[in-house]
Amino acid sequence: MTSPLQEIMNPKRIIIDTDPGIDDACAILLALASPEIQVEGLTVVHGNCSLEQGTRNALAILELAKSEHVPVYKGFDLPLVQPSLLAPETHGNTGLGYATLSESQTKPQAQHGSDFLIEKIMSNPGEISIVAIGPLTNIAVAIRKEPRIVENVKEIFIMGGAIRHEGNTTPLAEFNTYVDPHAAHIVFHSGMPIILTPLDVTYDCILTHQDVERLLRIDSPLTKFIEDATRFYMEFHDEYQKIDGCIINDPLTLALTFMPEICDYQELYVDVDLSGGVSMGNTFADFYRLTKKPANMKVALGVRPRDFMELFLERMEKLAKSVS
Ligand code: RIB
Ligand code: CA
Predict the structure, then answer these.
(1) Any idea where the domains of the chain sit in the sequence?
(2) Which of 35, 134, 182, 256 could be stapled to 19 by a disulfide with Cβ–Cβ 3.0 to 4.6 Å?
(3) Residue 314 CB: number of other CB atoms within 10 A?
C-alpha cells in the first residue's frame, strides 16, 4: 500500500478515453484536480455526443481548468457494428447540458486516438493506465491494431455494464456497453487487467442539489460550469428515473485509480450479450463459476458513496479556487 505522499511523488500516468458528456467532464476535472494522477492525454470517442462535439468539449473543459497542456486526440465516431446512438436527451445537444464554454484556442492532435493509445502504452511498458468512460470503440480497435498493448498496459478502468443492476439504456443494458457491445466484447476478453465500475455502484453515487449549492459558495467559472451542466443532467434523472440529483458514473471510475478503497470488488468472469435480441449489450457475471471460465476482471460491487462524494466535492472546491 503506497502512502499518499508516495502517490503524489509518483503519480499514476493515465489516458482518459471519453465521450464528454456531463459526467465525463466531471471525471476529467477530478483527474486534473488530483495530484495522484498525471493525465497523459484524452482520447475522444462517440457516445454522449458526436466525436466532433466531444472533441470541442474536451478542449474547452481543459481550457476551463487551465490545463491546455493536456493533448486531445480524436478517435472513432461510430460503433464497430451497431448504428450510431447518441444521448442528447441525457447530456443535451452540446453534450454539456446548459453549460456554454467558449470555443477553445487549442486544437486536437493530428494522430488518431487509437494510435496514440498504442504508441504511449508500447513506449512506456507497464506504466500507462487507461480510464475508459465511454463506449469502448477506440480501445477495441487499438487492441486489434496492436495486440501487445494487452500485456504492456498497466491496467484499464472501465465505466460500463450493469451486473445485478437494471440497465439505463435498455431495461437490461448500460449505455457504454449497449452503444458498442462488440467493442466491449473485444476488450472484456482481451486479457487486459480490467477493473469494471458498473451501474451497481455508480447508482449509489448521486450528486445532489445540496452538493452543487456547496460548490456554488465558491464564485468561479468552474463551479458555474458544474452547476449549468449538472442542472440539465438532474432534470433528465428526475424526468426519466425519478432520481433527485444526478448519477456521476465517470468520476467514481476515475477516483478508483487512486482511491480503490472507496469500493469493494469481486474477481468475476463477465461477458456481454451480442445475440442482438432484447438483451443486446447486457453484461452478466458468472457468480457460481458455472462456465468454468477464469475471472476476466475485478468488478466493483460495493461502494462507500459519501466517501466518494466528499472527495469529489473537496477536489472541485480546490480546483475552482485555483482557476478563479
Ligand atoms: O451509462 C453511463 C455511462 O454512459 C457514462 O460514462 C456516461 O457518460 C455515458 O458515457
Ligand atoms: Ca462517459
Answers:
(1) 8-323
(2) 134
(3) 11
